[in-house]
Amino acid sequence: MLREGTLRSTGDTPTVHPGGAREILVLCHRIPYPPHKGDKIRSFHLVRHLAERGWRIHLGMLADDPGDLIHREALRPYCASLAVQRMPWWRRLRSPLGAIRGTSFSVECFRDGSLQDYVDTVLASRPIEAALAVSAPMAEYLRATPGPLPPRMLLDLVDVDSEKWRAYAGRTAWPLNRVYALEARLLGRYERLVSEMFQITLLVTEAESSLFRRIGGAKDKVRTLSNGVDLEYFVPPDPAARVRGRTVFCGAMDYRPNIDAMVWFATAVLPRLRRRLPETTLTIVGANPTPPVRALAALPGVRVTGGVGDVRPYVAEAALSVAPMRLARGVQNKVLEAMAMGKAVLATPQAFEGIEAVAGQDLAVAPDDPEAFAAAALKLLLSPEAAASMGACARRRVEQGYSWSARLAPLENMLG
To answer: Whole-prediction pTM value?
Structure first.
């Protein structure tokens, strides 16, 4: 049996790979399956899109959650070969090497010798025409390989992650704020450095693309490739499922922007709503809730589900989907998914950024001020007809241009 991390065939040639197909190396910092959280959603649809268009994919990836290892089998039909390496918790202890090596804490955290062996083997033994590195840390595998690089290489930064760390530093007390500020500087320098070795650097919104150009990224190489939504999976439910006063939030609950959003909404906004509409509740749906999130369940009207197999029933029951993000970058998939299900969505400007929709028609937008956000939520909760009309507009909006095939269509020209 071949160990994980070695080049191995999936056996029978998948039907999505016709004879003579072009070959591509794709590197992801997390197993892109199941596609139920931000980076996994985008990575999975990139892989599926490439496979459906005839590319033979060699997929290298890491698993920071041991439970994700069972999902590698779901990816085999899309791949000519694949390798996955576990990323144990202690790997984070060597992150400070980034300050010594001139990379970053994130890059060192995701560095793996066995995955590097896989990358080197694929590049040396296969006629690889292109490479796609999803996230800055995965660019290091191409930067470190001793062999020749593919003639076409794309770096998908998705968001300018260094700016995320800068935002964390601004909202964190000493001494962690110093650590976050250092990572912002290290990763920002690294993002600019590796963008020079790729033909194209991708960002998920025009705002992120403009930001990367502004801070010194390879200006003439930056392109925007936005996210889509699965319009066949996320469909409008029976209106009878809706529960008066119920609000919902879906997201990974060990992710700091989501934690911040829920603590703020549950403690600062929800009490204001319940004073005017006592039956108002909040359902927080998402895996790995941290202690601050679990503690919210003790508040009146708050339910914390933890991980669920399917978020759709929880969204179906909601009268309003909220996205009260105060720390946010790029496109919020949770917003697109709720819109696809025909739900009225209330978002902060931070969560609305990158969504091509009309505020006030396709979704509601309110500032991250407790009184203003509560007033906007109450307006929709007290008017089911207005919420339903907004939800119908939301569904039409995503149908008009948010299919994954439409969003990823420019990828073909970028790969040459």
So the answer is: 0.91
